[in-house]
């Protein structure tokens, strides 16, 4: 097999971890096998080449560190997304509403870059909607407090309103059961 110059090539290595733990437990510990395998690949890239006729220039390759970094970032993002999906599966419907509110506020805060929305805009309306939902009979006292805490923490970060004004205007004390 001959590949034209500039052709991309990916190596995928799978480890039979239970077998490795049985045969060479020191290599399985702290994933040491990955470090050794990476060093072997680096040596092959730098000195040996891959396949036959490496002495006459066949099999010479360059390691694309940028592509490896992109692939690693993609794997990390996939793992984070899977972990987030797993976390959200453990939440009740009420907790999901609170989580969605917090996520929306975090996203808006990032977009605003230090600025704040005016009162009665979308974020303020989302806070009002959460407070109204939390007043429902199906919400526990703990979930109501969590909703009030989320609104009090996040609304002043994205809307030009103080925490005190938010507590008063949205009646967060009543939602918490304070009175």
> Helicity, in percent?
55-70%
Question: Would you report the number of β strands?
Answer: 0
| Element string (H = helix, E = strand) | HHHHHHHHH
Low-confidence residue ranges: none
Description:
- Helix 7 packs across helix 8.
- 65% of the residues lie in helices and 0% in strands.
- By secondary structure, it is mainly alpha-helical.
- It has nine helices and no strands.
- The longest helix has 25 residues, at 65-89.
List the helices and strands and how they pair.
Layout: H1 17-23, H2 25-28, H3 32-48, H4 65-89, H5 93-112, H6 122-134, H7 141-158, H8 163-169, H9 172-176
What is the structure about, briefly put?
This protein is an all-alpha fold. The chain has nine helices and no strands. Helices cover 65% and strands 0% of the residues.
């Amino acid at each position: 097999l001959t590949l034209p110059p500039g052709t991309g090539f990916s190596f995928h290595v799978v480890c039979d971890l239970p077998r490795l733990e049985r045969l060479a437990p020191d290599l399985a510990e702290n994933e040491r096998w990955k470090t050794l395998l990476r060093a072997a690949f680096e040596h092959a890239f730098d000195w040996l080449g891959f396949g036959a006729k490496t002495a006459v220039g066949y099999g010479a390759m360059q390691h694309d560190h940028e592509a490896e970094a992109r692939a690693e970032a993609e794997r990390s993002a996939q793992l984070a997304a899977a972990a987030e999906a797993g976390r959200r599966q453990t939440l009740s419907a009420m907790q999901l509403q609170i989580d969605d509110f917090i996520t929306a506020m975090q996203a808006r805060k990032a977009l605003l870059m230090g600025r704040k929305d005016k009162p009665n805009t979308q974020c303020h309306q989302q806070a009002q909607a959460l407070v109204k939902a939390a007043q429902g009979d199906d919400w526990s006292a703990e979930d109501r407090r969590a909703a009030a805490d989320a609104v009090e923490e996040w609304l002043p970060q994205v809307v030009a309103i103080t925490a005190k004004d938010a507590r008063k205007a949205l009646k967060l004390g009543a939602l918490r059961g304070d009175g």
